């Protein structure tokens, strides 16, 4: 039987308020040793900010990290998957939308994030991506 998303996702993902500065977002990513955070307005998921977003949408644009908000640089169209769905559905969504991360949403609540690396570790741990994703961080 194929694995379900809930078995490979990162539960309790880090989220920041939409008004959080990207400077603070970067600090959270560093503190948590992660490459993305969810962006929320109240209890509504409104986007996802990745470390790449910070480089491309803030640093490369010479924006002020202390003034720029998470909402202004986050990916606005969040593609999500349910925790009970087969991991193959997550792979298909990533392929279709050219994404590396998906929000895992149960009803109206975001319960996790599943990354390409998570799927590689579970589906093909001997592959280059699986091995790299399973390795300890180099910080």
From TrEMBL:
<protein>
    <submittedName>
        <fullName>CBS domain-containing protein</fullName>
    </submittedName>
</protein>
<dbReference type="Pfam" id="PF00571">
    <property type="entry name" value="CBS"/>
</dbReference>
<dbReference type="InterPro" id="IPR000644">
    <property type="entry name" value="CBS_dom"/>
</dbReference>
<keyword id="KW-0129">CBS domain</keyword>
<feature type="domain" description="CBS">
    <location>
        <begin position="9"/>
        <end position="65"/>
    </location>
</feature>
<dbReference type="InterPro" id="IPR046342">
    <property type="entry name" value="CBS_dom_sf"/>
</dbReference>
<dbReference type="InterPro" id="IPR051257">
    <property type="entry name" value="Diverse_CBS-Domain"/>
</dbReference>
<feature type="domain" description="CBS">
    <location>
        <begin position="74"/>
        <end position="129"/>
    </location>
</feature>
